[in-house]
Specification:
16 helices, alpha+beta, Double Stranded RNA Binding Domain, DNA polymerase, domain 1
Length: 399
């Protein structure tokens, strides 16, 4: 027989705690102190479990029965309210914890991780952008809650007086947000949404696609390209290695060190007349393995269709881009370099490593020699991560 409101009200404490049953698993617990609370006994896969429903008299008998019935309805539909409540509590704790992950915290950790790779002037410039512009405006905000519009508003205010500072602040913010994404402290790099919003453009002399969505579209067009396998391979090779068009056009099989996973370009073929090493990612090695079936009998990886003894003509990649529908204002053969440089910088890679990978000449010959000898492992990691990032872009369902 079930309980009555009077029986619940009159339940007195005893020498130790006890319970009164209302039936169907609903219990009134009475502690030694006289405090009363409702508990529901239920079974999952033959094992008894208990869930608290609240304290009496805040929760009366009728309310306790309603909570019991609601609980059991959820169980009947395959949902466990107790586990749901636990998940809700954990989510609430997680959300509160995220509020402590502020822009200042992430920016500080980003700076500490990278400052040893920078020159003194680079450290000072980055610190100035943070301390004078970004942190005063965004520092106390949880990094997940900062919107692209909020950051843009700040950058536009800076741009009114200092366009170059606004652009540099955007680059630094992009690296910080990418750092947060990598750490799991943010879901998306909001700077990707600010492409073309500032008046000052990066110093790029060749038309290039740089927004991730546009890069994904470029890959889709390369995949659908109707020309020869050799030209399609040259397009992929340009995207994954981002070397100069002439260096790619003349790439030879004897330059490929497959054991060391390096493309060794001799000084005679380099614009700066210095030998250059290009680490080969797993994807590029697979590409070379496939194209070897078509061009392995030629000294050149991308031979001319008219003669296997010479490489594809200059302008072949450019003509392919035009055939794919890109105008001269959108993309050119040199644009693969700007495409990679822009995104690698926004992803937070060390600027010196990026410049070295692009084979840009160092003003200081000693520094150039040091970089060439000591930074190959960083360049290997970056080239593989670059290739992986491109592959990930191809899997995104863009709307």
């Amino acid at each position: 027989m079930g309980l009555t409101e009077l029986a619940v009200k009159n339940a007195k404490p005893r020498g130790k705690g006890y319970s009164l049953s209302d039936g169907d698993g609903l219990l009134l617990l009475v502690k030694e102190s006289g405090a009363k609370s409702w508990v529901l006994r239920y079974w999952v896969n033959g094992r008894e479990k208990r869930s608290g429903l609240g304290k009496y008299p805040v929760i009366g008998l009728a309310d306790a029965r309603d909570l019991k019935n609601s609980f059991k309805r959820e169980l009947a539909h395959g949902r466990n309210p107790q586990e749901r409540k636990k998940e809700e509590r954990e989510e609430a704790v997680r959300i509160e914890a995220l509020k402590t992950v502020t822009f200042t915290k992430i920016a500080g950790e980003w700076y500490a991780q990278r400052e040893s790779d920078w020159s003194l002037s680079s450290r000072r410039a980055a610190r100035r952008m943070l301390d004078k512009y970004l942190i005063p405006a965004l520092g106390k905000r949880p990094i997940r809650e900062i919107s692209a519009q909020e950051l843009l508003s700040l950058l536009l205010d800076i741009e009114k007086e200092k366009p170059h500072t606004a652009y540099q602040s955007k680059i630094i913010a992009g690296q910080i947000f990418q750092f947060a994404v990598t750490r799991g402290d943010a879901d998306f790099n909001i700077v990707y949404n600010l492409k073309g919003t500032l008046k000052l453009k990066p110093s790029v002399h060749h038309a290039a696609l740089t927004a991730p969505r546009d890069v994904a579209g470029l890959m889709s067009r390369i995949e659908a390209y109707k020309g020869s396998n050799v030209v399609r391979a040259a397009l992929w090779f340009s995207l994954y290695t981002f070397q100069r068009p002439g260096e790619i056009r003349g790439a030879a099989w004897d330059e490929m060190d497959f054991d060391a996973k390096l493309w060794r370009i001799p000084e005679g073929r380099m614009k700066n007349k210095r030998p250059h090493l290009v680490p080969l990612s797993r994807q590029v090695l697979e590409l070379l393995e496939r194209i070897a079936l078509h061009t392995g009998d030629s000294p050149f990886i991308f031979p001319s269709p008219r003669s296997r003894k010479v490489p594809i003509p200059g302008g072949t990649v450019l003509l392919a881009l035009r055939a794919m529908g890109y105008t001269s204002e959108q993309m050119c053969a040199h644009g693969f370099r700007a495409l990679a440089s822009t995104n690698l910088n926004e992803q937070g890679w060390n600027r010196d490593v990026i410049e070295l990978s692009l084979s840009h000449v160092e003003k200081n010959d000693i520094r150039a020699a040091y970089n060439h000898a000591e930074r190959l492992s960083e360049r290997r990691e970056m080239m593989q991560r670059w290739a992986d990032w491109l592959d990930e872009l191809r899997e995104i369902k863009w709307r």
